[in-house]
Every structure is written in structure tokens, then in C-alpha cells.
Design goal:
The protein has 215 residues and is of the alpha+beta class. Helix content is 13%, strand content 21%. About 9% of the residues have low confidence. Bound molecules: calcium ion (2 copies).
Length: 215
């Protein structure tokens, strides 16, 4: 097949698809179509940054201090959850923290924001008992004890954390009794990650009891 024939064949295949996608008038010729910016004919979906207006002040701290450690480039994640069962989705931001030996600055924590229902959120992290410093890598939510209140599982270097939702009033650390900490340790002189320093985690509702498991 000659070059001209190849181009003609490709044009014959591509133009109908472009017309269908961009809803171009069928009577437009090849020169007009190929010389136009087809993206101008696709619908625009604008997004507006309303973070500040919504009252979200969370800042992620990756703990970087010059050694370029792998976890500094990973994490942390965010979860939508309705922790108080009011029908409005709340937000949980996972944070990292300075590495051991780096005492610069305050130690940040994850942040839980309650959806006030008017387009704004309020920080309820401390009130809900989640002002816990972690080097978080990921988060998932699920009702692991099937009590109707969504719980939180955070993967982190140094050991994972499972927080049970106590009726929407407070989160309680039940990692040890649930046996899901992963047995990790903080990195010392040399870097040692825990067995649950995963960057992602998921929850699934399985089993006859309907309780969520974490994987
Ligand atoms: Ca809510
Ligand atoms: Ca629960």
C-alpha cells in the first residue's frame, strides 16, 4: 500500500469517529476537520477550587528532610465517610509526620472534617480522638463490627491502626485487640518498614455476619 493510500485509509477510518464524538456536521470536508481543534467541540466540565471556602485547612506533611526516603513520595490519602450517620459525607485526611530524629516543627496528625451541610466543614479531629500522629500511607473505611457506624483503618509505617466508631461520638483505637497492627516498628538507625506499611488498602463486606474485612 502506498503512502497516499495509507493516509486515505486512515482518514476514512478516523473521520467518522471524530464526527460522531465531536458531533461535527456531516457535510464538513476532510480539510476543514483536520485543520480544526476538535477539542473545542467537546463539552467543558469546569471545576472550582472551594477548599478554603469550605473551611478545609489540612496541609500534608511528608516528613522529607533530605534523605529522599521512598515513603516521602507516597501516601497519604483521603476518605469520604459519614461518621455521624447524618446523611452527609465527611472527610478524613491522612497525614505523615517527621521522621524519628527530626524534631523540627510540630507533629501533625490526620484530620477529620464534619460536613455541616451548608457547603462548609468543621475540624473535629481532636473531639473525635483522631489527633494521633502517624506516618500514614493509606486509609479505608468500613463497618467491621456491623454496628451501623463506619470505622477507620489506616495503613502506616510503624504499624497500622484500626479505629472503632463509638456511636459517632468518638473513635477508639482497637488495633491491639483486633490484632491488625501488623507488628511494625518505627524506622531506627536503618529503615525498616512494617508489614502493613501499605500504600493502599480496601474494605469489603463479606461473610454471613455482614461485617467488613480489611485487605
Ligand atoms: Ca456526616
Ligand atoms: Ca462499626
Amino acid at each position: 500500500m502506498t503512502r497516499r493510500a495509507t493516509l486515505a485509509a486512515l482518514t476514512a477510518l478516523a473521520l467518522p469517529l471524530a464526527r460522531a464524538a465531536a458531533k461535527l456536521p456531516a457535510n464538513r470536508n476532510v480539510k476543514w476537520a483536520l485543520g480544526s481543534n476538535l477539542w473545542n467541540y467537546f463539552p467543558r466540565v469546569p471545576f472550582t477550587d472551594i477548599t478554603e471556602a469550605a473551611g478545609i485547612k489540612f496541609k500534608h506533611v511528608n516528613g522529607a528532610f533530605g534523605k529522599k526516603l521512598l515513603p516521602e513520595t507516597m501516601g497519604s490519602g483521603v476518605a469520604f465517610l459519614d461518621f455521624d450517620n447524618d446523611g452527609k459525607q465527611d472527610l478524613l485526611f491522612i497525614n505523615s509526620r517527621p521522621w524519628p530524629g527530626d524534631s523540627s516543627g510540630p507533629v501533625p496528625t490526620m484530620a477529620l472534617y464534619r460536613n455541616k451541610g451548608d457547603g462548609t466543614f468543621e475540624d473535629v479531629t481532636e473531639k473525635m480522638g483522631l489527633n494521633v500522629p502517624l506516618y500514614g500511607m493509606g486509609v479505608t473505611v468500613g463497618d467491621f463490627d456491623n454496628d451501623g457506624w463506619v470505622d477507620i483503618f489506616v495503613t502506616a509505617i510503624g504499624g497500622c491502626k484500626l479505629f472503632r466508631n463509638d456511636g459517632g461520638k468518638r473513635f477508639v483505637d482497637v488495633t491491639a485487640e483486633a490484632g491488625v497492627g501488623g507488628g511494625g516498628v518505627w524506622p531506627g538507625a536503618s529503615f525498616r518498614s512494617s508489614s502493613c506499611s501499605l500504600s493502599s488498602v480496601s474494605a469489603a463486606r463479606v461473610g454471613p455476619a455482614g461485617c467488613a474485612d480489611f485487605a
